[in-house]
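Repro case for the chain-ordering regression, as requested:
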Amino acid sequence: MGSPMYRQIAEDLREQIESGAIRPGQQLRTELELRDHYGASRNTVRDAIKWLTTLGLVETKPGQGTFVVQKIDPFVTTLTADPKRPGGNKVVAPSADGYGEIDRSQLAGQRKLTVSDPQVEIQKAVDPIAAQLQVAAGSQVVSRHQKRYIDGTPWSLQTSFYPMGFVLKSADRLIEASDIAGGTVQYLADTLGLRQVGYRSRMLVRAPDATEAYFFNIPQDGRVQVCEILETGFDQTGTPMRLTVSIFPTDRNQFLVNVGDVPEDEPEESKT
Amino acid sequence: MGSPMYRQIAEDLREQIESGAIRPGQQLRTELELRDHYGASRNTVRDAIKWLTTLGLVETKPGQGTFVVQKIDPFVTTLTADPKRPGGNKVVAPSADGYGEIDRSQLAGQRKLTVSDPQVEIQKAVDPIAAQLQVAAGSQVVSRHQKRYIDGTPWSLQTSFYPMGFVLKSADRLIEASDIAGGTVQYLADTLGLRQVGYRSRMLVRAPDATEAYFFNIPQDGRVQVCEILETGFDQTGTPMRLTVSIFPTDRNQFLVNVGDVPEDEPEESKT
DNA sequence: GGGTATTTGTCCGTATGTATT
DNA sequence: AAATACATACGGACAAATACC
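-- result from build under test --
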């Protein structure tokens, strides 16, 4: 084998994990035991474990040991909800600021979604936000930021941006740091006559920043990335009326896109 | 500071990178120079670089040095194409097996998409595939596998699965290892009267396996993950007629989802 | 092509710190 | 308090890849 020793050790451990010889949640032998077992140095064993860590197969806990990762039962978000967003959505986040509908069958199980009170700020629109909202760079926008949890687990960070002009008209509840019953989209329709007739989401995957890693309790070793979704809502004139930026850690989230006529969702298990 | 030294070094380098003091593509000082500069050991400097590597900020090249990563101009795929998929799609992959339409404005630039001839196999449906196609586990299915490139860069791996029964009827071109003009969806409509009236995509992000890492030329350090999309197509009776599994490396791909009425796409730059 | 210098990759041994039990 | 296990940091040696002459 031309491959270095730490890779061979990692490969051996990987086969044990994927064959089920070491079960999820189970502890691996300690670094010193592995060092003796493979006849390598402790540093080399650590290189092997580090390799498996980046592959997302194991995690290390100081003072405890190295464990095979437990896959989190993924939460599934449907990105193609009704754009007109009637208040009567079957099951939806209590204050989803306009973001994708929550999958029914997940909540039919006993998962409980909680949302923090929005943190409202008035900011100057920086480049990507101004471009998406089609307002002048540097002009003022309202940002409403929320933390969302499921069963107490941090699930997503969400920030919605609205042009400050909405507030100067009659939509002054946008700058209140409290939930808007029925959702802001409905509120803007009621107060300003802005109907959201559609939206476009752009998805990308990147490494989390420090804030995100802290909130989601993501191990700082970079094996878990985040999915960033920029959702721009358009009113009946085709003008952007809303930009929602959502961050989802990829270790606990999946997404659905429905196009055309599809049968009812049934996301049993498809761990791939 | 309670933070370890290698993190402090990494933080110092990170600020230099994100402030633009070290430009994308530019080479960092060598490990030995950094060791002298920070008064640390070479291994500690290497830990700092390794940390930046997992953050996706730098990449190391043996024999050459450490470089600030160049972001790849992302290719944007629209996941919500017309489900009826008429042959007259404005711009579409020459043999897109039914996968999402290709964004126009990208090809309007001079990016050129090429697709390998399909690699056709007859397999027994394993669990997740059988479940999605709603066929008995262990029954035979046709798989058509393709490699897709843009401007010569590996862009996605795509495998479509069809029930073997389609071939036993008149759709025998499914098992030919050559392109089907107009796409297989259109072909199935012509031969079997199966109209695809909709599809559902499930997206998830995971670490690449060895095959994927090799094909996409992903650095083996695990900082680049892949997006896996399972797209199930349904015919006019609501029965699954197709399962397409697509793999996209996340360092060069973004995705669009359009819902309702949205204006024309204009994915200028939004590097986030 | 060959040889050499440079640079990162691998591997070792050791010591000490920190978190957990 | 003590033991255990992983985290950090050092220094050294050699290998492998690349660039340059």
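Ordering looks correct now. Confidence is low (pLDDT under 50) at residues 85-108, 268-272 of chain B.
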